[in-house]
User: Fold this.
Amino acid sequence: MTYTSHPFLRGNENRPSYVGLNDDDAALIKKLGFTPKRYLAETVIVSQGEACDRMFMVESGWGCISHELAGGQRQILDFALRGDIVLPQSYARNALETFVAQTELSVLVASTKTFTVAAMQSPRLFSLVVETLVHNAAVIAQHLTNVGRRSALARTAHLFLELEARLERIGSVTRHSYECPLTQYDLADALGLTPIHVNRMLRELRERKFLEFRQGHVCVLDQQGLTKFAGFEQEYVEG
Assistant:
């Protein structure tokens, strides 16, 4: 799937508004039949291998994009947050990844054809599609570097900093703290580690006074030190 962290939404989760879209663009979205949908946590929205011609604009909640492996394993590719666009990639019309609601998730859904028509009529929506493709490549490059070259501790730190940077753009970070619904199993699938190894990395980050992750809440204790340690450069998030 292709996804972007260039949020088209601002405001809060109860009353979102569209960033960069004028009133005509917003009206076009409604006119063309973008349908609001709400999914319960852990609902599979798109299954790997199934036919899919839909795209999604996330209005609230967290989604998870993953590649499913034999034996029930998976590699989490990214998380879809408020303001993100998710465009399922497919081969022979079959989805190449799975899209799941990590938490309760509200989205605007449209057919790919409908979205294409909207993008052709709205320069801003067309720009968002281009930004989606460019940003996707940058994110994948960072995640490949995480798994392939960064140490387990550095890649764990890098992921939390990436999430902080993305959430900060939509006003969901307060004093370097944010809510994070991910379990150690989710983190393990995203980082290419075992849950036990993730537990050790979280403990070491806490002992080094870099970061704390407790009961779904992340608090970055040393922003400068953690950023330097992880080699994190947030330009790829900002676009």
In short: The helical segments are 23-31, 112-121, 123-148, 152-168, 184-191, 195-207, 223-230, 235-238. The first helix runs from residue 23 to 31. The longest strand covers residues 54-60.
